[in-house]
Specification:
The chain is α/β, with parallel strands linked by helices. The chain contains 11 helices and 11 strands. The chain is 30% helix and 13% strand. Strands 3-4-7-8-9-10-11 form a 7-stranded mixed sheet. The protein has a 4-stranded mixed sheet with strand order 1-2-6-5.
Length: 365
């Protein structure tokens, strides 16, 4: 099973009294619910993962080979999230369960340290936030990312973080320290700046303005942060005026780059998003079905047109044109077996990166 690494050993704690865990987590998963307002309606399954460095399948469109995901499921509750289908592997649904039943790998930092130190590890780039957000609401309680960042810093292993969470600012000192010794990439996800739409389609996320403030704060600490302008929602956030507003605010935040990505609708996300669309914008359902047909992606011509518009806006706004301070770091001495050698830094994609899933500056692209 693809999720066998989430199972617990028989010697670990049993399921909390009176609680039930998903079938693939049934042995030893500790189930918790917290009564504080920010966690109302959420259930957490605390597990000890057997491994945390995940190899990306060779056929993937991703521009990197390794990921670390401290959580599965995401309380950001973005209606379009492409990672929703992964909850089906846990015998959970890809809708409300994905938003409210969160798997927490409580030993992620410990396992990561061990795996980074293994002789077979070659110091390749590690991407985070490419499945679900490591700075979602649960991180405020579990505080897994400081241990993860410290492990990567101490190993001088290049890494990147993609997030919608302004909580990343809590770890500014760790990110800055890591950037002194290895390649660090940070990208904030801000697809649009419409208040009403944000409340409806990304109800669990920080306001787009707060994410852009985080982008600015990172830049002030010498950690240039890009913006993934994603997703751009057809007929909702793709008008010239909406794109211009978003790019203008991204430029004001001092983003080092902006990469547009049009909504894609994979199974799991497709059904959930179209249900939302039928409730809030029923007149657009037929148009979406024509645009996407039975596939996950909008036509190439449409995506190219949006990318060209954003590219022109970004160039006009001067995004990526300012010279950022380049951190100089001492690469660790390679071991005799070649392990521990950091990967080559990713090249900047300029004002706008390639229109591929997460082919971003700092993400090994």
């Amino acid at each position: 099973m693809r999720w066998d690494n989430l199972r617990l050993a028989a010697t670990e704690q049993a399921v909390a009294a009176g609680a039930s865990a998903p079938s693939l987590l049934a042995r030893g998963a500790v189930t918790r619910a917290f009564d504080t307002p920010g966690f109302t309606g959420l259930t957490f399954y605390e597990i000890h993962a057997r491994s945390v460095l995940n190899r990306v399948p060779p056929a993937s469109r991703m521009a990197f080979r390794w990921t670390v995901n401290p959580y599965r499921g995401c309380s950001h509750a973005c209606r379009y999230c492409f990672a929703r289908s992964t909850h089906a592997y846990l015998d959970l649904d890809t809708g409300r369960d994905f938003d409210t039943r969160i798997v927490v790998k409580v030993n992620v930092a410990e396992r990561l340290r061990a795996e980074l130190a293994a002789p077979r590890w070659r110091g390749e780039h590690v991407a985070m936030g490419t499945n679900v957000d490591p700075y979602q609401r649960a991180e405020g309680r579990y505080r897994l990312m400081p241990g993860v960042l410290a492990a990567l810093r101490d190993a001088r292993n290049p890494f990147s973080v993609l997030t919608k969470g302004s909580l990343i600012l809590r770890d500014l000192d760790l990110l800055a320290a890591a950037a002194e010794v290895t390649q660090v990439g940070v990208v904030l996800s801000v697809g649009f700046v419409d208040d009403e739409l944000w409340r409806l389609v990304e109800p669990g996320t920080p306001h787009p303005r707060r994410r852009l403030e985080a982008c600015a704060a990172l830049g002030e600490r010498g950690i240039p942060a890009g913006v993934l302008m994603a997703p751009i929602l057809p007929y909702l956030t793709d008008s010239p005026a909406a794109l211009a507003r978003a790019v203008e605010q991204i430029a004001q935040a001092g983003a080092s780059s902006v990469t547009p990505l049009v909504l894609h609708l994979r199974p799991g996300a497709r059904e959930w998003y179209l249900d939302w669309l039928a409730e809030h914008h029923p007149a657009l359902v037929a148009a979406y079905r024509r645009l996407y047909g039975s596939g996950a992606y909008a036509p190439r011509a449409y995506r190219d047109r949006i990318a060209a518009q954003v590219r022109e806006l970004a160039e006009r706004a001067g995004i990526g044109a300012a010279a950022h301070r380049v951190r100089r770091f001492a690469a660790p001495a390679p071991r005799p077996d070649g392990a521990g050698r950091p990967a080559a830094p990713a090249e900047s994609a300029g004002p706008v990166g390639r229109d591929e899933q997460l082919a971003l500056p700092g993400f090994g692209g």
